[in-house]
Write a structure and sequence with these properties.
Structural class: alpha+beta
Bound molecules: ligand PPE
Largest sheet: 9 strands, mixed
Low-confidence stretches: none
Oligomer: single chain
CATH topology of the largest domain: D-amino Acid Aminotransferase, Chain A, domain 2
Length: about 325
């Protein structure tokens, strides 16, 4: 009888993500050399924290959008998990900028990840060392061009967003994302673009990877933080809306309030500003990408690409 086990040489584990050179515990190495043990604590228990950041091409070369806030949130996520990293916010910023330069990226999605290593197994993170890596990836429109052009079709998920007494929802922690993965997979399998998650009281929380806004009678409503991730794009969009003269309020809302909104849209680093055309097959407004959402998307893209000098304080130019 043949055995399933082979003792041949180690498999190569390079991804197909074109990450190129990766910053890994202080060294910049090819992706194939940025390897971890299969006994890594984070792989078993989800004990990692991460960020999603974008750099855009501007007239002055690549610029990272809100680098300080993202780097600080990575450390904050670690703090929530009780991690004791040795990297400062400045060192994380430098690692990110060095990785972009090493790969000569003009624009990219940036994924820093901090995690417990493989010194001990068992729930207690105990003696595990902390590791840090930064990858940069070429990444386009998150939910696809169609979702942006026509507006995304959302499904209220049968999975609820974890509440803050069950999971640390303010931490961008690996383990938390099982919730997002399940909700997103359910929506996709049923033919929708994205999932909308309710909190345990039934208020709309957020998308699997986005914060949500809706517009009603000229007022822009940002869904309150409650159990949501404290989104940096959410904060950006609130500022841009106010600067455009739109009144903005933070609110709790049930799903039916969104059904009868004039417009709704999702925001996030990956999703940028993505209009919502329908929720649970009910058309929102005219059932297409709404004019306010499209104007906000346009404005957002101008800001991140450095076209509006009054927002340059949000940009870190890679080559300055
Ligand atoms: N909520 C969740 C659950 C979330 O994951 C994100 C970001 C946001 C809100 C928006 O946060 P911010 O990027 O600070 O505006 N989701 C990241 C991961 C997406 C992924 O598929 O991975 C992102 O947008 O980078």
């Amino acid at each position: 009888m043949s055995s399933q086990t082979s003792t041949s040489s180690a498999p190569t584990t390079t991804s197909s993500l074109n990450a190129g050179l990766i910053w890994f515990d202080g060294r910049i190495v090819p992706e194939a050399e940025a390897q971890v043990s299969v006994l890594t604590h984070a792989l078993h228990y989800g004990t990692s924290v991460f960020e999603g950041i974008r750099a855009y091409e501007t007239e002055r070369g690549a610029a990272v959008f809100r680098l300080r806030e993202h780097s600080q949130r990575l450390l904050d996520s670690g703090k929530i998990l009780g991690m004791l990293p040795s990297w400062s916010v400045d060192e994380i910023e430098t690692a990110i900028l060095d990785t972009i330069r090493a790969n000569e990226r003009h624009s990219c999605y940036i994924r820093p990840l901090m995690w417990y290593g493989a010194e001990s197994l068992g729930v207690n993170p105990g003696r595990n060392r902390l590791h840090l890596m930064v990858a940069t990836l070429p990444w386009g429109v998150y939910l696809g061009d169609d979702a942006v052009r026509k507006g995304a079709a959302l499904l209220t998920s049968s999975w609820r967003r974890s509440s803050g007494d069950i999971m640390p929802t303010k931490a961008k922690a690996g383990g938390n994302y099982v919730n997002s993965v399940l909700a997103n997979a359910e929506a996709r399998e049923l033919g929708f673009d994205e999932a909308l998650l309710l909190d345990k009281e039934g208020y709309v929380a957020e998308g699997s990877g986005e914060n949500v806004f809706f517009l009603k009678d000229g007022i822009l409503y940002a869904l309150a933080h409650s159990v949501n991730l404290r989104g940096i794009t959410r904060d950006t969009v609130i500022t841009l809306a106010r600067d455009m003269g739109t009144p903005v309020e933070s609110t709790m809302a049930t799903r039916d309030e969104l059904y009868i909104a004039d417009e709704a849209f999702m925001v996030g680093t990956a999703a940028e500003v993505t209009p919502i055309a329908s929720i649970d097959r009910r058309p929102i407004g005219r059932g297409e990408a709404g004019p306010y959402a499209l104007a906000m998307r346009e404005r957002y893209l101008q800001v991140v690409c450095g076209k509006l000098p009054e927002y340059h304080h949000w940009l870190t130019f890679v080559d300055s």
